[in-house]
Amino acid sequence: MKKIVFSAMKIMSLALLAATMLVTSCKDSEEEIEGNIIRISASIEDYTRATDTSFEEGDVIGLHVVTDKAFVNNAKFTITDGKPHNSHTFYWHSDKGVEADVVGYYPYDYYYGGYADGTRTFEVAADQSTDKKYKSADFMLAHVTSKPTNKVVKLPFRHVLSRVILSIDTLGETISEIVVSGLATKTNIDLKAGTLVADSATGSII
Prior knowledge:
It is built from one helix and 13 strands. It is mainly beta. The strands form three sheets. It has a seven-stranded mixed β-sheet, with no helix packed on it. Strands 1-10-13 form a three-stranded mixed β-sheet, with no helix packed on it. The chain has a three-stranded antiparallel β-sheet with strand order 7-11-12, with no helix packed on it. The chain is elongated, with a radius of gyration of 19 Å.
């Protein structure tokens, strides 16, 4: 069997060798809810994967809710029956006239230190040879602002990375592995603006 190695002609901001999730907006309830509890819904507003229409059951997203400080910081929400779920109850800040930044990201990272200055570092997986591995490299982000409300806050997630699609004529040969080299695989992400600053170092992706 042969191993094919590709060398990128130019460095991309970030590359994903993965078809990413197909998305349609979820139809979430507009009904008002009682109390001062934070409730969210999650959809994906752009899509690249033809087999999914939304987040999948068991997908996990992270949530920040921030005013002058992060009073919800990297909370873990698991998609259950099509909706984000956390067994803990989170409450809005007390000043109903102050807007908060509501930021969601995927995939969830337990070891991510928190909102801090509103940026975080993300590195795509070098091995994206399976469905699970390439999904872990598909960073998505949602950001809205909201004052304390008794309505569900909708978070429309979008893909913030680039992907590479290769069309290969094997000429009858069996291909065991494809490697693309010379790609930027690490970046700093502004969670509110959704902008990226790629690290100068490059790597290879399978």
